[in-house]
Amino acid sequence: MLVVENLSFAYPSAGNLLTDISFAVDKGDVICLLGPNGAGKTTLLRCLLGLAKIRTGSIRLRGQKIDAIPAKELAADLAYVPQAAATVFPYRVLDIVVMGRTPHIDFTAVPGREDYAIAQESLAELGISHLAEALFSRISGGERQLTLIARALTQRARLLIMDEPTASLDYGNQVRILRVIDKLAKQGYSIIMTSHFPNHAFLLCNQVMIMKQGKIVALGSPDSVVTDTVLSDLYMTKVKVVEIDTGESKALKVCLPLI
Q: Do the Cβ atoms of 234 and 208 come closer than 8 Å?
């Protein structure tokens, strides 16, 4: 679905923030992007979304360079799920979700019955239909994150880019969001997500991309990439990857920082 080749990015007054980035995303992939603060993760997401103009290299979506794709067409294939934050205006949850229909509505038009029906379907898909009339600013952080995912589903894009989808959430809501991501991948969605929790890679991702100082330093399966050595070097602190018995056929790996 998405192919990035030799991508580099820089602001005019600074050196390269991203250097020689290459990777590909297939249908159903869940790619976890790990790296310390300042590694370039958010900058890379901005490039993938067409919000930052790359210096060299290319980004192709379904074989076409994204800078040649009109914004509305791009939004029909690629959706962004930001970190949840309360809004200033008292929008209903349903209002937020139906905003995902913007790429499919003429500039001078307003959402119609079909658009609201699709929004309701997305709420039902994520199990939050009961929140439709609630104010977005008054629901919990986990519920806001689910609302933003529902908005992306309403957009009907098959590639989802998620910026730390579990940030600031408690364990219960983190697991709830991760289960939704896993479910979407099994339905054929492709997902790129940033995270500060290496354990997420073991829980639901089939690829992990490790970034440091604007470069990819490791790319591959969680078992091959998320190791003691890589994590300890990445975060400049001792990290141990251990296996725990969950009673399932395969042991689960977890990452533990050593103080």
A: no
3-state secondary structure the chain: CEEEEEEEEECCCCCEEEEEEEEEECCCCEEEEECCCCCCHHHHHHHHCCCCCCCEEEEEECCEEHHHCCHHHHHHHEEEECCCCCCCCCCEHHHHHHHHHHHHCCCCCCCCHHHHHHHHHHHHHCCCHHHCCCEHHHCCHHHHHHHHHHHHHHCCCCEEEECCCCCCCCHHHHHHHHHHHHHHHHCCCEEEEEECCCHHHHHHCCEEEEEECCEEEEEECHHHHCCHHHHHHHHCCCEEEEEECCCCCCCEEEEEECC
| Closest of 255, 148, 147, 144 to residue 196, by C-alpha | 255
- The pTM of this model reads 0.91
Query: How is residue 98 written in tokens?
Result: 């139906």
For tokens 């980004």, name the residue. 59
Cα 80 to Cα 83: distance, rounded to the nearest angstrom: 10
Architecture of domain 2-257: 3-Layer(aba) Sandwich (3.40)
181-217 per-position pLDDT tens digit: 999 999 999 999 999 999 999 999 999 999 999 999 9
What is the rounded (10 degree) CA torsion for 229, 234, 237, 240? -40
